[in-house]
Design goal:
This protein is mostly helical and 90 residues long. The protein has five helices and no strands.
Length: 90
């Protein structure tokens, strides 16, 4: 029973790390390129505002379609992102 509880905690930690990694990489990518391109600066601003306010749709609107597809589509990406975002708040 304890090993299952440990596994669930580990699984949640892994999800949080993946979510943070994707968010940070997205923001870093935009920051490194945004200095030259106004469109990228706007995308970075949108992603930052969405991340701070908890706007899941806003976060996903600025996420690469390839990442969303690898997460299992928009519905699954929305579900996973909500779970991870709200687990970070806790």
């Amino acid at each position: 029973m304890q090993s299952n509880n440990w596994f669930n905690k580990f699984k949640n930690i892994q999800r949080k790390r993946i979510f943070l990694l994707i968010t940070l990489l997205t923001i870093f990518h935009h920051i490194s390129s945004a200095q030259k391109d106004p469109q990228l600066r706007e995308a970075l601003s949108t992603m930052t505002r969405a991340s701070i306010s908890g706007d899941i749709e806003g976060i996903l609107s600025q996420t690469s379609p390839r990442i969303i597809e690898s997460m299992g589509g928009i519905e699954q990406a929305t579900k996973v992102t909500k779970e991870l975002y709200f687990s970070l708040i806790k």
